[in-house]
Amino acid sequence: MVNKLSWFERLLPTSCLLCGEPAASAVDLCTACKRELPWLGPACPRCAQPLPVPAVCGACQREPPRFAHCVAAFRYAYPVRELLSRFKFDGDLCAGRTLSSCLARRLAETYADHWPDFLVVPVPLHASRLRSRGFNQAERIARRAARELELNVSTRSLRRIRATPDQKSLDLKARRANLRGAFDAVKVPAGPVALVDDVLTTGATANAAAAALLEKGATEVHLWCLARTP
Asked: What is the pTM (predicted TM-score) of this model?
């Protein structure tokens, strides 16, 4: 179950992150803007690819990803796309907090019947990228969601040991080659791991990270992310 807000957070007056009007909920959005959120509907349970009805998509049938299940809160569309950009590139931590709380609520719904004892692990940045950005957005998401869901976070279980070029212009094959040997995991307790990232596109990063965690003791890996691209 999602934890209630702290007494301090309840005292803070909030404005909508999108339009500046008074926020009507705990996620810093007014009622009108909250209705604009592109919640992910029916999707593939393995990779969260949007589909007309929930079913394992053809790509996952042909080549199942190393992660067993994926939960994404949103489609990568307005206004989540803009809030994510503000969070990731402009350091807007309020936008990150809002999106992470939405993810926690989606996770609470998804696992309502059974909560595995997840160890929450954010996808790490390489040290050089972390220095230039100043924070790891996946770690911020993981900590907020884990706090609300009363789960433990580990930032030492997975390391990015090789800096990789930006993947935006690469196709799936090139992304996989780009990420080969990029992650290393320490021994993790036998059990399920929740791998957390901001956006799922091709799944190449999550696949490489999940493979490293499975090699070092995770029994299965679930991927949690804020948004899924089409």
From this structure: 0.90
